[in-house]
Prior knowledge:
The protein is α+β, with helices and mostly antiparallel strands. The chain contains 13 helices and 31 strands. The radius of gyration is 29 Å and the shape is globular. The two termini are 55 Å apart.
Amino acid sequence: MLGPGAGAAAFEVMDQSRIRNVAIIAHIDHGKSTLADRFLEICEAVEPRAMRAQYLDSMDLERERGITIKLQSVRLSYGPWWINLIDTPGHVDFGYEVSRSLAACEGVILLVDAAQGIEAQTLANATMALEHDLTIVAALNKLDLPAADPDRVAGEIEQVLGIPAAEVLRISAKTGEGVGELLDTVTVQVPPPAGDRAAALQALVFDSHFDQYRGVVSSIRVVQGTLRSDSQVRFMQAAAIHETQEIGVRTPTPTAVGDLGPGEVGYLIAGVKNTAEARAGETVTEAGRPAPDPLVGYREPKPMVFCGLYPIDGDEYLDLRDALDRLRLNDSSFSYTPETSTALGFGYRCGFLGLLHMEIITERLEREFDLEIIATTPSVEYRVRTTAGAEVSVDSPSRLPPAGEVAAIAEPFLLLTIIAPARHTGTLMELCQKRRGNLRGMDYLSPERVELRYRLPLAEVVTDFYDLLKSRTQGYASLDYDADGYEDSDLVRVDILLQGEPVDAFSSIVHRKEAYSYGRQMTAKLRELIPRQQFDVPIQAAIGSRIIARETVKAYRKDVTAGLYGGDVTRKRKLLERQKAGKKRMKAIGRVEVPPEAFVSALRMPSG
């Protein structure tokens, strides 16, 4: 095992053959961040008194949830080697972060839990690494656990991924056992980066974030040429020229350097204030000697889950727009467009890669930008063929054409891969079939573990499917998915009416057989949430002009006869008739006030 390097003294012209660019990929909770911590300690990148668990996870949200949300890069000195390490997220919703990381590497460390074995995201990440033609160094983690079964899991890796079991390393990131040997293997097996130092500069932006004092800080990988600290650079796709203010590397403390050569990973600060000019996938070149062509960049991710985000205080609409601009720079996998709701006012229709992605973005808006927002019910993008022969994309129930103009509605489908203990096969098949799923295949990875492949509508997955999957398998099932086109389905829009008027925020597109259940749930929930008025408020669920469910918020009733004593009964009847007429008149001109907390509670209601 080699020892740590000499530190920052080697930041001059670097021997390209001594550079290794690697990413850690694994399923969620298989120990990526813990392994990164051990690398930092072995390479003496962080002083012992400053060391903490999940050191590279910079957001409080990551620490609280125990997951990595944003990729993080760091340069490590290990003997004569310089290792540019990228710690990546593991959840399926953040697969785009992983794909961007792999574009900046020549190799990956594929980490597998020695107790849990291969999971769905393990397969997805390994496939992604092979598509990028990267060297894979496989390692079994958590050997210190009593439940660890490294021989069985190594056999699974050989059977499923084709990596010989004898070549799979065995480590414990928690105790440090075998981590040094893993670093040695990386330096031997992962090839050095290619690239000509004298060529025209081509540097790939693989991540960015906004600093309120210095502007956009871009994480870059130099592919060709040399990036110097005293040059003018051109962002090729944005056609913008900026003066370089600082270039450097993260060790993990940001450290300024004079230049970055081919294969090196670092950061660039060029005084960019417009976040649109430094998107991930942008190519940076020298203004005076530009490269002939930009780099390939990244395939734009396609959002799969949509919801509306609205500020509770209408005055915060512009603040919400600025916050979305800055978050979009940091996470280019979500999209947003302005929209208006009669119930909620001005807001944005946002697209996300999944439900956890939506939850994280919403929470970051509230925490990092101090905004109070309402998120509407998640929906997916449908393709509607009208009777006139046109095809339109609809990602919100309010944008669905009238029922008489709709010829057919096609919904998106997914190919799901579920890996779970074999004893839970029955309950998982029942769940998938209940969600309109079709079984496409089943394989046993070992006598104890099964892989199920189902084709399901995306709309059945984006609400509570993942939670039910975990609860039915005591948390042992894992899930990965890929888009699988569109197919016509018997779908209808269920509108929720308050006092006869539709409230667009509560409308939903559902399968016809589930429409009654959704209508009953939503009307019952709103009856509990809407405060009583001076008149009865009918809450109805309707498909077109047909009412399928109804609840009523009963009116307050003032005792107008309390002041009477004795006398003829007609006096009491006259007062009651006058009250009745007044309530009827009030109902005709009255407006139902729905408090914001009612919207929040109703829209977070699970679909069942």
